Amino acid sequence: MSQPRDPRADGLSIIDYCRLLPPQRHPSMAQGLILFLPRIGITVVPFREYERGWYVVVVDGNKINPVGGYHLSICDEEIATAIEVRLGEQVESRIVHTAEAAEELPDGQLILANDGRARRKREDSAGTTWTAFLRASVSTGDLHLPAKVLGVAK
Q: What contacts 137, CB < 8 A, 6 or more positions away?
């Protein structure tokens, strides 16, 4: 289950790093979820909310934050952008960071962009557009990246 930490976090504050990531959930919905924190490369389970975040227990740690160590406090911004780990059938979850990577996704693919909007990719003779559920299309270059790839395009 171990995953490496995101090197883009080097030299950034927690808040600045979290602004690079697409939102995954409202922090108030985190209790009991298994969440990977890419900034520090550990997996945690939030168990008690406090004023600006959550107390968590480490379930997959590292040398600095080991499993069975002490509880950590994690801010709401990091909880909101953490990647949920689901047990059972493996489901691909990935983030596209560039317009080139977004262009490589198949026609019909859904993404959750960094502006919080889900968009579907459409390719035609005029090029690629990404349509939000309100039918406001944008070009790939105008996407708010990074974005979470949602499921598999059919």
A: 122, 129, 130, 131
Burial of 33 (0-12, 13-18, 19+ CB in 10 A): middle
The answer to whether 67 touches 4, Cβ cutoff 8 Å, is no
Average pLDDT of the residues of the chain? 84
79 token code pair: 């909880």
Instruction: Give me 96's structure tokens.
Output: 């596209």
What's 9's DSSP letter?
G
57 bridge partner residues: 45
pTM to 2 decimals?
0.59
8 A C-beta contact, residue 24 and residue 33: no
Triad 111, 112, 117: Cα angle to 5°:
120
Of 88 and 83, more confident:
83
